[in-house]
Amino acid sequence: MRVSTARKIVALPKQGADYLPLEPFAASLPRPAQTQRQQPRPLAKLPTSVVLRSLAVNYAMSSPLLNSVSMAVLRRAVHPTNALFDTAKNPLLRFLLRAFAYDQFCAGMSPGMVQRRISGLKDMGYRGVILCYGKETVIKGGAASTQDKIKSLMYGPQETLMVEQWKDGLLKTLSCLGAGDFLAIKVTGAGPMALDALKAGESMPAPLQAAMDEVCALASSQGVRCWLDAEQAMLQGTIDEWAIALMRKHNKHGVAVMSNTIQAYLKAAPANVKRHVELASEEGWTLGIKLVRGAYIDTDPRHLIHDTAQDTHNCFDEIARGLISCDIPEGGQATFPTTQLFMATHNAESVRKALTLQRERVEAGQPCALLEFGQLQGMADDVSCELLEECGHNSGPNAPGVYKYLTWGTLTECLGYLYRRSLENKGMAARAGELAGAMGNELWQRVKTLKF
Ligand SMILES: Cc1cc2nc3c(=O)[nH]c(=O)nc-3n(C[C@H](O)[C@H](O)[C@H](O)COP(=O)(O)OP(=O)(O)OC[C@H]3O[C@@H](n4cnc5c(N)ncnc54)[C@H](O)[C@@H]3O)c2cc1C
């Protein structure tokens, strides 16, 4: 069905830290004739087991007390100092973390389990997944010391082996993926060689560069795209440089084999995006941007981050607008680079604005970046399912793809990721409560109609 550009766009509530219901977004978009007559139930796509677990997990996350307890348990489990918090020694802890955290937020422990999870998601209508290997390195300390800088020049077989193991993890992850999927790469996972070079602002060490080139070449041959995750601010400047070097090398023929992540909560984000656009345009490579708000607000220096959540929302939406409409710097430049924009967000208002703008531009025949959306596994299923509905109705070549971000690995390997999820969910009690309510309604509909 064609979408009318003359449709009325409903006024939305002001963005804020609180949960924004997706209903106004859904209401603003046209629907096929038969769905206009009935109440849409996007969550009907979810298996009942997922609805039940999501209801339990989001209900727990909406309680500040339960949230604090689970955060404290996860923090201790990441670096256990006694058997009580050691998942290898405490079977009850292992069972609880698996049932209420791992199964909700992670993809599986083996490639076979992961592939089953991925095909389930594709059957639901997702264009693909973004897969990440859960093993991570936790960084302690501040900026690089002279010792770090010297260290970065003299590594032994141990550090080189860590890079090899990290690369093997990426290749194993790639083996679970097919054409259209994404591989998410956390460069700090490569160990001290990566960390010291990042802290010292050096170019990518040779073993790391060789590993990345191998991964990019294999990904490209499989039709998989990659992105570098954004990390703490003290490393991010160098991650940007590494990502640009990789895009320059691998993003040819209109495909962003590599993308960089831009954190819109940073005051410097708009200038950073402009620099990316200008470099891609001058040097003739395809620009891949994954746009996020930013996950390190509790640890990054506060002065680098926008003063208010509303400033972050405005910055995120303005960068998205500029990239979608090829209008950076504002007023436009003659040759805007081919751009692929991945909006990684759970914010319904940002999703609605981007989708509306993209549709209007496509219909008007105006230039437009390739647009894709993604949410984390176990979170924002209401936003994802609405997007599946809306994007599913538009099957043209410009229809935005919808993706889920999955982390895989053993329970122990994924504990750091799960702890970060719990930290991030700390300020989202209201949103978790809304989602628990939506899951409860969905469950009630199934009970009433006896359809499970
Ligand atoms: C698929 C996917 C991939 C991701 N990858 C990364 C990644 O590589 N690196 C990374 O850092 N994050 C990543 N994130 C997390 C992301 O940065 C956000 O933390 C998270 O998605 C919540 O933001 P939101 O856009 O969903 O919107 P909302 O939940 O509406 O916004 C919350 C965000 O607003 C910002 N904010 C909140 N309060 C304030 C305040 N007082 N002042 C300024 N800003 C404030 C923070 O960034 C906070 O996370 C990813 C998220 C997704 C969905």
Automatic annotation (TrEMBL):
GO terms for cellular component: mitochondrion. Its EC number is 1.5.5.2. It is an enzyme of class 1 (oxidoreductase). Keywords: FAD, Flavoprotein, Oxidoreductase, Proline metabolism. Its cofactor is FAD. One of its GO terms (biological process) is L-proline catabolic process to L-glutamate. Belongs to the proline oxidase family. This is Proline dehydrogenase. It comes from Emericellopsis cladophorae. The lineage of its organism: Eukaryota, Fungi, Dikarya, Ascomycota, Pezizomycotina.
